[in-house]
Write the C-alpha cells for this entry.
Amino acid sequence: MTAPLLETRALCRSFGALTAARDIDFSLEAGARHALIGPNGAGKTTFVNLLTGVIPPSSGAILMKGRDITRVDQARRVKLGIARTFQINRLFRRLSVLENVYIAVAERVGAAPSMLRPAGARRDVVDEAMQVLETLKLTADAGRRISELPYGRQRLVELAIALGLKPEILLLDEPAAGVPSAESHIILDAIDGLPRDIGVLIIDHDMDLVFRFAQRITVLVGGAVFATGTPREIGADPNVRAVYLGRAGHG
Amino acid sequence: MIFGVDVASMLLGGVAAGMVLFIVSVGLSVTMGLMGFVNLAHGGFAMLGGYAIALAMRQWGLGFVPALGFGFVVIAALSAVLERLLYSRLYRATELDQVLFSIGLVFMMIASVTVLVGPENQPLTLPSYLRGQINLGITQYRTYSVFLIVVGILIVIGLWLTFERTRAGAQIRAAVDNRRMAESLGINIGRLFTVTFAFGSGMAALGGGLGAEFLGLDPQYALKYLVYFLIVVAVGGLGRVTGVFYAALLIGVLDFALKKYVPSGGTAFIYAFTILLLLWRPQGLFGTKST
Amino acid sequence: MTPPAVAWIDHPAAVALAGRHRVRAWEAIPWLLALAFYFAFPKYLGFGTELLITILFALSLDLVLGYAGIVTLGQAAFFGAGAYTVGMLAKRGIWNEPITGLILAAAVAAAIGLGSGLVLLRTGGLTLLMLTLCTMALLEEAANLAHDYTGGFDGLDSLPIAPLLGRFEFNPLYPTTQYLYVLAVLFVCFVFVRTLVYSPFGQSLTGIRENTLRMHAVGAPVRRRLVLAYALSAAIAGVAGGIWAQANAYVNLGTLGLDRAATVLIILVLGGYGRLYGAFVGAVAYMALAHFLSKIYPTAWQLGLGLLLVVIALFARNGILGLTEAAARRLRAPRAIS
C-alpha cells in the first residue's frame, strides 16, 4: 500500500498553556477532496500553518508521500508541492493580476533569481501565468491592479497564485470568506474545476460548500480530531450536531 | 581601598547618568511599545524641556524643583497637542514615514530653539543644596549624583506602581500586549495614547533638565544623544519600564567605566555590544517576541 | 519544455509585461541635460560632480529601500567603506588607478554589505533600523580609532589619484575630467540598476516589499534575496564613495556619518523612492535648494527642511515623482463616481 500524499501523526502544538493542536492524525490521498470543519477557535488555521511549515509542531510528525517533512521549512515545502491560500487575501495589491501569478510561476520554474534579463522576456513564464488565469476565467482582468478588483475576483487571484505553483497538495483556508454571496459562485465553480489529481483540503464554515465539495470530512474541536467520515456519516452524527448546536451562540 | 573608592565613585557616576538616561528614555520605550511609533523626535522633547527648565530658573527665578515641574507640564502639554494634531495621523503609516516625520519635527525643534534662544550651551546652575559633596558613611560622594539616584529610584517605583496597581496602568499594559484585544475590551485607545505620549514626553523634559548639568544643553542635544536613547530602549525591550531601567543603568555604567579605563574605543564597544545583544535577542533583554 | 496550447503574445496584459523594460524616449533627457550642463556651466562643474555622485548614492539607496523595502539609516557605511578603500590605498601608494580603484571599492563595500546583511537581515522593523545605525556608527568609530591608517578625525587629503586611462588628469581647480568620469560611471551603474529592477529578480524584490508573507508562501527564498539586494546596493554605494574620494582627492569621517546617511534618505524620499528616477529628481531639488539656502540662512534651511519632511510624511509620501504621477492620473482619466 503506497503512503498517503500527506499525513500527520500525533501532531501537537501548544502556545504556552494553550493547546492549539492535540494529537492530530490525518491523511490526505492524491485526488482527494477533504474538508476540515469545526467551531471557531478549534485550531483549523493552526493546523494549516503546521502543514505548510509556518509554525513548527511541538511534537508529532508530518509526512509527504512517506517522507518526513516535519523539519522542512515553508519555502522548501512549497517546492515539494504544497500550496495554500489564506483566509484573508495576501496579494500584491499594487501589481497587476498577471504580475501576481507571474511571481508565483517564476519562483516555481526557477526564473526568479535571474537578474540581467527583463522579466517579460521569459515568455514561458508569462504564457503559463496567462494559462492559469484562463482556467479561472480571469484573463479579462489580467492587466488590472488588484486594488481595482472586486473582492470576489481578488479571492480568485489568491487561488490563481496557488495554482501557479502547480501543487500536488492544495490547502484552501476559507476560500469563500468575505466574498459577497452574489459572487461566491465564482469561487465554487473554480473549486469544482480544480485538477483531478491533486489532493485538496478545504477549511470552511459554509456547510453547503463543504457538503457539495467534500468526499471526506474531518471535524476539529478544541484542537483535536472529533470525528472523521464521509459527508453522510458526519451529517448523521448526533455528536457533531451537538458540538455545532451547542456553540450556536458564538459568531 | 583606594581602588575600591575609585570604582565606587565611578559606579556612582555611571548609575546617576543611567538614571537620567532612564528618565528620558522610559517615555520613548512606552510610546514605541504602545503606539508602535518610531519617534526620533523624543530627544527633541528632552531638549525643549531642558531649555524650559533652565530659562524658567534664569528669567523668572524659579527654584530648581518648581522649574522641573514647570518643564514637565509645559512639554507634556505641547506634546499632547502635537500628538492630537500630527502624530495620530501616522499611526498606521509605514515605519519610513514615521522616521521621516520625526526627523523633520526634530529639525524644526532644533532650528526654532537656535533662532529663539541661540546656539550656545545653556548653563543651568544647580541650587546650593545640591552642589558639593555629601558624606555617606565610608566616603564623600557628589551630592547631585546621589540626588539623581534617589530621584530615579522614586520614579521607577512610582511608575511600577502606576503600571501594576492602577487601572490606567493596566490599560496601558494591555494595549502594549495586544492593541486589538484592548480595543475590543472598550479601552479608549485614542485617549490612552495621548495621555501616555504626553506623560512620556514630560518625563523626557524632566530628564533633559536633570541631566543638563553633565550632558549639556544646546540645540544639538536633540540629535547628539538620540542614538543612546534608542539603544537603551532597544536593549531594554519596548514598553517595559523595568527593562528600560536596567538597560539605562547598564549603559550608563558601561559608558562611565569605558570612558575611564578605555578612553578611546568606548563608544565603539557600546555599539558592538548593542549589535550583538540585538542579534541574540531582537526583542531586547526584557521584551517579548512579537507573534 | 512543451509549448503552451495557446500563445498569449497578443493579450494586452502580456504585451505590457513584455514591454515594461523598453527604453522610452524621455529617459534620454537626464543624460542629455547632464551633457548640456557640462558645456553650459563650466564654472559649476565642481557642483555638478557632487550632484552626480549624490545621484549615484541615492540610486544605491533606492535599490535597497525603494525596491527591496529595507529601511536603513546606515547606507553611509558602504559609501565610507568605498571612500576609505580608495583613500587608504592611494595615500599609502599601494594603488591609485581610478577605474580599478572603483572596482576594489565596490568589492570591499559589497563584502561588508554581504557580511552585515547576512547577520542583520534576520531581524526587521525597529530592530533592523537600530542595527543599521549601530553598524554604521561602529564603522565610524573604528575609522576614528585607526587613525594611523585613516587619518582619524582629519581624514586623508591630497590623495594622489593617477590620471584616468593614463591621460586625463584629475585637476581640483578644473574638474572637467571628474565630471565626465562620474557621469560615465553613473551611466554604467544606472543601466545595471535599471536592468536589475526590470528582471525577475527585481520583480521578486517588489513582491517581498509588497507582501513578504505571500513571498514565503510561494516558495521564495526571501532572506537570500534580501541579502543579495543589500550587498548589491552596498557595492553601488561603495562605488559612489570611492568616486567621491577620487574626485575630491580627500576622505574623512563625514563619509561614514549619520549626517550623510540621513541626507541621502531625505533626498531619495523627496524625489520619490521605488521609481528609479527619484534619485535624480530628489538630488537636483535638494542640492539646488541647499546650495542657495543653507549657506545664507542655515537655521532657516534646517527649519524649512524639517517642515518639508513633515509635510512629505503626512501628505506626499511618494515625493515629487509621486505627486506628478497622481496629477497625471487625475488629468488623464477623470473617474466616474461609482
